[in-house]
Each structure stands twice: as structure tokens, then as C-alpha cells.
Write a structure and sequence with these properties.
Layout: H1 22-42, H2 46-57, H3 59-73
Amino acid sequence: MCAETTPNQSVLKVRTVYRNTPASNAVYGLGLIGAWVYYFSQAKSLLDGVLAFFQGLVWPAFVIYDLLQYLHAS
């Protein structure tokens, strides 16, 4: 005979992953402010200022892109 397992007999292991911690929020926030300071200081016109705002919001994408370009070049 084939033994069937019931829900009480099976053991599920659950792993808790914390992705949104106060420390990660602080790092992103400081990076956001730093990116805005950099991009706004480079802005020459109002349109550049508007673009600087949005570039500051997605600064991690620029960091990863530049990092991958650097790794590919070496």
C-alpha cells in the first residue's frame, strides 16, 4: 500500500526575508539626496532641473549601469 501524507504530517519550512528595513531606507534616502545634489548642480536650464529630479529618483539604476560598464571594460 502507498502511504499518503496528510497536511499535518508534511513539514514546511518558512524563511522570513526582510527587504524593507529602516537601514535600507536610510541608505536609499541618503543616496537620493546625494544624487539630487549632484544632478541639480549640473543642471543648466529648467528642463535640466526637471530631468535632475527624475534622475535622482532612479539613481540606483545609473550606479548599476556604470558598474556593469566598468566591469565589462576590465
